[in-house]
Structures are given as C-alpha cells and as structure tokens.
Design brief:
By secondary structure, this protein is mostly beta strands. It has a domain at 129-228. The protein has one helix at 5-15, and strands at residues 36-40, 50-55, 61-66, 78-83, 86-94, 100-108, 113-117, 131-137, 142-151, 154-161, 166-173, 182-183, 191-193, 196-203, 212-217, 223-227, 237-247, 250-259, 263-273, 282-293, 296-300, 305-312, 315-322, 328-335, 341-344.
Length: 353
C-alpha cells in the first residue's frame, strides 16, 4: 500500500497526543474518505473470517481482507463498533474447564493489525452479557474500549485506555439512572457519535422492547440514560426492531415494524437539541415513514442512504434507498443470509503503535 502525504498527516492526527486541528474534514459520499464501505458477511458456521471493502456507488468489491493468521483460530462472531476504520470484534473461545469466555480485539484491516484487549474476572465470562463499545476521547486524545455489565444491584462500567493499555472501573446503582432499573442486554452494536458511545436499553418490565438508550461520555466517563420515542402501533404488528445510527449529523433511531401482513414500516427519527429552558435537553422528531414489503434494515449513512435486505427463497437482495430523492436501486444479490454488518470505511493508520 502506498502511503500518501495526506495519509501521514491523518496518522499523526489520530495517534499523536496533540491531535492536530488541521485533520481533513470528512467529505460527502463519493469523496476520498467516504466512497468505500465495510461489508461483513458470516460463513455458514456463523463466524466471520474476512471483510469486504466495497464501492458505495457500485457495490463492487474493491478488496477482500482476511483476518490475521494469528487470530484465525478464533474467528469473529460479531462486530461491536467501528471508529476511524478500526473494528471492535467480539467472539468466544473455550477457557479452563471448557467453559466459554469472551474475547475482544481491535482490528484495522487497512494495516492488517490486531490489538488484543485483555479481559479479566466477571467481564471474561460469557454469561455476564456484557455490552462493548469503542470510541475516541477528543479531550485526552486517546481511543477507549468500554464494557458495561450487570453485577448484583449495580451496572458496572470498565474502560480500557489504549494509551496506558490498562482498565479502570466504576459502578452505578441501577436505580440511580432515571429512578428505574434498566439492563443493557441486547444484541445491537454501540454507536459512536460526538465523543459518546450509545447503546439501546430496556426497562426490565418491558420484556424485549427497547424503550431507552444509554450514553457513555468518553471524556467525563459518565453514563446517562434517556427515553426513546414510544413505538407507534398503527396496525397489527408481530415485532418492532430498533437500531441507533447517525443521520444528518444527529443521533438517529430506525424503527422497523414487522406487520402480520408481511408489510414492513420503517420510521426514521433524529434527536434534536431543545432551545427551551426546561429540563428536557433533547427531543425526537420523526423525519420519515416508509412502507416496504419484506425488507429489513441494514445500515444508514449520515447523508441519507438507507441500505436494506430482502431475503426471498434463499437469495438475499441488498438495496439502497435514498431518503432525499425517494429512489431505490438494487446493489447486489447473493445466496444465503446476506450481510450482517456494514459501516463506512475510513482508510486510516490508527492503532499504528
């Protein structure tokens, strides 16, 4: 790989203690920093051994990058986050007495570099249902990995500092967050936005319905919990699937209502800051209400490209719907279950050290 001068500047901006102010701004889709996209599909075994880097415009594969050979004996089971071109990968392996344990590591496919994140105690146990996140602290100029898990009456927080390569821990009384008990037990990945990591959460009394979201500030290392907009039920529905994303430089929520008539409705909300003097800092505004048939949500870009999947008779069709123009086009068709992770690919040299 040829390293251009601009890439070198970007490296020092990412890994230097004094993160320079002249870091090139991200461009719109089609620009040099955003025309490539990560696409991850699992094998029939359910594990991931490589990622495809594709063109966002044509969906053609630019490069297939395999997981480093040193980690091939423990392939990835899920991707928990993506920041500056670096993937936070999670899997499990057999520990002592043949019990399953958590394993996480950071993977920069551009560099073919992996950084192992050591796990200890309860966090290492698969049964602890930990949630992991990854982000950049712009105050200390350090990348951090965050872990949340429940232990007795406390929601425990552990932060791994990539600068010191060490863990710090904190704990929050579950009843101290909005005076209601929550659990972070869900399969959604953390979303990194404006120096915070966000996860979906649920009240313990609402079964599997995601009613709230957790926000962890990477600088102050404070955790807050806020309510999501109520699920709209305008017809008989079997389930409502919720995902957090980023749209138009705002935190976004994508609701997919699966109806009994196989008609799917996707609602897209964005969070806006209130300009009032009351105690409510943010409110949610519904921007789009889209009627689809059999399509499931895959990925939402910041500039309004909604990627969907449509499985029919063993063939999964991937489509992109432009929220601004209302136009839809087919990206690809493939045998099997399709894509299980998609995110923008910033070709960076983060985690060089």
């Amino acid at each position: 790989m040829v390293v251009e001068e601009d890439d070198v500047k970007r490296v020092f901006a990412m890994v230097n203690k004094e993160r320079e102010a002249e870091v090139p701004e991200k461009t719109d889709e089609g620009g040099a920093d955003s025309e490539r996209t990560y696409v991850v599909s699992s094998y029939s075994s359910g594990y991931i051994r490589s990622v495809n880097i594709i063109s966002s415009e044509t969906f053609a594969t630019i490069e297939n990058i395999e997981l480093c050979k040193s980690h091939d004996d423990r392939p990835i089971s899920s991707i928990k986050g993506c920041v500056d071109g670096v993937l936070l990968a999670h899997t499990t392996t057999l520990g002592f007495y043949n019990n399953e344990v958590n394993v996480i590591f950071l993977w920069n496919p551009t560099l073919r570099k992996v950084v192992d994140i050591p796990l200890y105690g309860s966090l290492r146990k698969k049964c602890c249902d930990a949630e992991f996140g990854f982000g950049f602290d712009s105050v200390s100029n350090i990348y951090k990995v965050v872990a949340l898990y429940l232990e007795k009456n406390y929601l425990k927080i552990k932060v791994y500092n990539l600068g010191t390569r060490s863990w710090t821990s904190n704990k929050v009384k579950r009843s101290s967050i909005d005076n209601v008990k929550y659990t972070s037990n869900n399969t959604s990945r953390g979303v990194n936005f404006e120096g915070c990591v966000y996860w979906l959460a649920k009240a313990e009394t609402t079964e599997n319905k995601k009613t709230h979201y957790l926000c962890f500030n990477l600088s102050s290392e404070a955790l807050t919990c806020s309510k999501l907009p109520d699920v709209k039920r305008d017809a008989p529905i079997k389930d409502v699937l919720r995902e957090l994303s980023v749209l138009y430089d705002s935190l976004a929520l994508v609701d997919t209502s699966v109806h009994t008539s196989y008609r799917d409705v996707i609602r897209v909300w964005i969070r806006r800051k209130n300009n009032t003097t009351n105690d409510v800092l943010f409110s949610w505004v519904e921007l789009y209400n889209l009627d689809f048939h059999g399509r499931s949500f895959l990925y939402l870009t910041n500039n309004g490209k909604l990627y969907l999947q449509w499985p029919v008779f063993g063939v999964t069709t991937t489509l992109v719907y432009d929220l601004k123009t209302g136009k839809e086009k087919v990206c690809s068709k493939a045998q099997g279950d399709g894509i299980n992770f998609m995110d923008s690919n910033l070709e960076s040299l983060a985690l060089l050290r």
